Amino acid sequence: MDSTLVRHRVDLHWSKTSRIHAAALVGLLMLVSQFAAAQSTYKYIRKHKEDYDDKLVHFGFYYALPFTRYNVTYSPAFLDPADPTLRITSPNNAGFRVGFTFNAFMNDNFDFRSNPGVSIYSRSVNYAMASGEDKSDIRESTWVELPFLIKYKSARRVNSRMYLIAGASVGIETNVRRREALSQGRLNTNTTDLSIEYGVGFEQFFEFFKFAPELRFSHGIPNAFNGGASGTSAAGIQRLTTHTVTLYLNFE
What we know:
The chain has 252 residues and is of the alpha+beta class. The protein is 17% helix and 52% strand. Strands 1, 2, 3, 4, 5, 6, 7, 8, 10, 11 and 13 form an 11-stranded antiparallel beta sheet that branches. It has a two-stranded antiparallel sheet with strand order 9-12. Strand 10 and strand 11 (210-220) form a beta hairpin. The protein is elongated. Residues 3-14 have low confidence and may be disordered.
């Protein structure tokens, strides 16, 4: 075979091999550069309190800011033309609540929860009179409240998760003064209450504790109105039920 032809074939072989090697090297370099870029953008996030859900019971405490009022149902006397009251309303008033939390694990999605506490409320009923005069009856009171709740929690995403909560709560007024309410022509209300509660919250896990802001709604069931003296503005009220929206700051 002609030596020139052999040399030409050898050169052609090495040329093809070089192109293959060069393409492979370029591909390898691109793969390495992409891996390096991915490594530079990846950020390690530490998962705090990894064994939190392995414990059956947890305790904590909370501070809460409730906004509360009465839902007013008018009596037939309110429609009497002789009644000087034009309007009866109950505005939202801010209060304060503090207590501790008991949380019992049921399964991966449900917990039993109770957060008994002491609440300071200031509920009021306002009367707009035909004479242009405005009257107000304020009930400042301290309540001990005991909720019984079921909590539905989502799957944990590293250090956070959402939850829903619902149940019922029993309330007892502690600073009861046997008011001479009727003789003084003032509003008289019950010293116990039963309410339905529901809300939504967000849990954030930190190194040493869990923080959970929560928004909860409460609707009283029984009639809190015990009557008023005849001929007073309260005669236009047939039913009062409590309504409260509360922002909780839970620490566990």
